[in-house]
Amino acid sequence: MWLGDSLDRLQSFPADVRQRIGFALYQAQIGDKHESAKPLHGFDGPVWQIRADDSSGTYRAVYVLQRRSAIYVLHAFQKKARAGITTSQRDIEMIRQRLKLASRVAGKKGD
Fold first, then answer.
1. Which of 5, 52, 56, 104 allows an S-S link to 17, with CB 3.0 to 4.6 Å?
2. Secondary structure class of 37 (helix, strand, coil)
3. Where do the domains of the chain lie?
4. Model's pTM, two decimal places?
5. Which among 66, 72, 69 is positioned nearest to 2, based on CA atoms?
6. Could you tell me where the DSSP H helices lie in the chain?
7. Which phi-psi region, left, alpha or beta, contains residue 3 (left: φ > 0; alpha: ψ -120 to 50)?
8. For every residue of 2-16, which 3-state class applies, written as one string?
9. What is d(CA 18, CA 54) in angstroms, rounded to the nearest whole number?
10. pLDDT digit string (tens) for 67-106?
11. Residues 24/48, Cβ–Cβ less than 8 Å
């Protein structure tokens, strides 16, 4: 399930980035882990990020797995900083808000 504007943002990424992120999300759906999927620390429970690079920059998609292998894509964004690994506070806050939304949606569906 795509939360907020995460699908629209992903669709604005370059084609090769979209393909790599899409494949990584597919792998998560079938219970595998893509080589670029890494835990995003600082959250309650496991939150995963996928990294895809191309000549225009570094892109991220952040997702969480809920019960029964439901995937909630919380956020997709282009990393602005060229150096360092820190995700911006604005992006972290967006992820926190959507993580709460994913928990509510999963609870309503009875997952």
1. 52
2. strand
3. 6-109
4. 0.88
5. 72
6. 6-11, 15-29, 89-109
7. beta
8. ECCCHHHHHHCCCHH
9. 11
10. 666 899 999 999 876 666 678 899 999 999 999 999 888 8
11. no
